[in-house]
Amino acid sequence: MQAADIRAVTALLIAALVADGTSTIGGMYHLARGYGRLLPNLAALGADITTTAAEA
Prior knowledge:
The chain is mostly helical. It is 36% helix and 0% strand.
């Protein structure tokens, strides 16, 4: 999946968390614009999220 803006990447991330299997989302860099702490907060709640250097 590819996200075009901050709202899209957030929606795709939430959908990926409830989906079975592995999801790959492009455009994760959009989160830094307003939700910079979202990934660490979700990880603290038990979410298994991995980012690559190009997306972080």
